Amino acid sequence: MILIASDHAGFALKQHLVAFLANLGHEVRDLGVESERSVDYPDFAHRLAAAISAGDADHGILICGTGLGMSMTANRHPGIRAAVCHDAYTAEMARRHNDANVLCMGGRVTGPAIAEQMVAIFLATPFEGGRHRRRVGKIELERDGEGS
Ligand code: RB5
To answer: Whose CA is nearest to atom 4 of ligand 1?
Structure first.
């Protein structure tokens, strides 16, 4: 199961990727937006990140104009590692080294062909583990009421 969401600036690319993923046989849950009417990207980033944080799915895709606002918002959620990617290399490294679970991209930056490539690589690439597990383990901040 892959979750996907966008704001108005990412709507067209989201629609494209929903069809692309379905064609590849993936189960996709589209969390909105439903049109190009102007909305606030944090509403959709919070929706998707909360669902992944709760364990509803392992991976998500967030698209706004640049990918930046979506990633900033999603990364506020525990256990979310949202990476803005621009090409095959950043998408691969986001998985291999950073164990990213949310792929963010910009509908005003990235065309559909590169977006397809990034999504395919992101979903197919495993986390390398090893020294990267130690580093990824240092990302998360301890929250009030957690830890010993
Ligand atoms: C909307 O105009 C734009 O600001 C938004 O899609 C996004 O790029 C924010 O990071």
So the answer is: 65
Give the mean pLDDT of 89-95. Answer: 98
Report residue 63 as tokens: 């698209």
pLDDT at position 70 is: 99
How do residues 115-145 score in pLDDT, each as one tens digit?
999 999 999 999 999 999 999 999 999 877 6
Where do the domains of the chain lie?
2-137
Phi and psi, residue 29, nearest 5°? -115, 115
Catalytic, 85? Answer no
Would residue 104 show up in a list of annotated catalytic residues for this protein?
no
The dihedral sign for the CA sequence 41, 43, 46, 50: negative
Q: What share of the chain is helix, strand, coil (3-state, %, to 5)?
A: 45, 15, 40
CATH 3.40.1400.10 is held by the domain 2-137: yes
Instruction: Say what the pLDDT of residue 142 is.
Output: 84
Query: How far is it, in rounded angstroms, from Cα 1 to Cα 29?
Result: 7
Q: pLDDT, tens digit, for every residue of 45-55?
A: 999 999 999 99
Q: Among residues 64, 77, 85, 104, which one is catalytic?
A: 64
